[in-house]
Amino acid sequence: MGSTVVVTAATGAMGTATVKLAKHFGVADLILVGRHSDRLKTVAMLSGGIPAATVALDELPDDWATSNALGGRLRELAPGGAHAVLDYVPGGPVTGKVMGGLVAGGALVHMGGNPTPLQLSPMALMMNMWRFIGTRTCTRNDALEVLRLLETGALTADELITHRFPLSDAVRALDAVQRRDEPMWMPVINP
Q: Domain range spanning residue 61?
């Protein structure tokens, strides 16, 4: 039986790649969390037929960062709780707030480098048997599996490349990545 997975920062490069790969790793349902509803809808189309609900932070109550609005919304979408959260958020309260949407025994895998302290008590972690796993990379087997999927044509990444720049525009490309003024998943700089 497949699992329900929450992907935070779903509109970023890692989030979009995760959505694209989900069908190859036994995911049954996705819940995508991001800042803007319009960008989340675009990412949801990458799910390869897996049902993908979205939670836009700009549509939550203004006090979502200090209330349980985000965890509550996740529980509405997955009443039994999500089995896992793949967290790519680089800062702010989202990381701590999404743990409230996990099933007992669920895991949050954090790869976003978020320096914000979790506002969860050790008692909450213990009672719910939640696991917080920090990692900086995927496993070698994960990487080999993705490469195999690309090699066999079962997975294509072309639609994830949203911008292409010539090498002469490398500085402009880096500036565009840092500003994030427009939706950008994976830019390519061609030498």
A: 3-140
